[in-house]
Amino acid sequence: MSFATREHNLQMQGPRPEFSREDIETFVHAFYGRVQEDELIGPVFDLYILDWGPHLKRMVGFWSAVLRGERSYTQSPKGPPPVMHWNMPELEHAHFVRWLDLFKQTLEDVLEPDQAAWLAGRSRFMADALSRNLGPYEGET
């Protein structure tokens, strides 16, 4: 299933009114603050994100589109997210596992429990789409 199809499937579940724009800005900024400090994935992000302002704005737009149905996401001029990630030779499954762990921790710290659980459950779709070029996770078939 393509990234666009997965994103579409998330959006087809309908807008999630329990996620305010403020909620989205809070978790995006908190999450990427942790990413920048992380010993495993921080250095990879540092290689590709030279200016965090536009990236944070794009990610707020992305999650606002997914969760609220807003037409606020503008794709990077470098291409769709999966293609950009597939072209990063540094990325391994361990990076995506850490991304998921940080994402879940951040959601649990800044959102209501039901919001955090719902969104954490969907974050695996994102990790799967972005890491598809690496093949199945160890232990998966």
TrEMBL record:
Please report the name of this protein according to its UniProt entry: Preprotein translocase subunit TatC
The record's CDD domains line, in alphabetical order, gives: TrHb3_P (cd08916)
Top-level taxon of the source organism: Bacteria
Instruction: Enumerate the InterPro entries for this protein.
Output: Globin-like_sf, Globin/Proto
| Gene Ontology molecular-function annotations | heme binding; oxygen binding
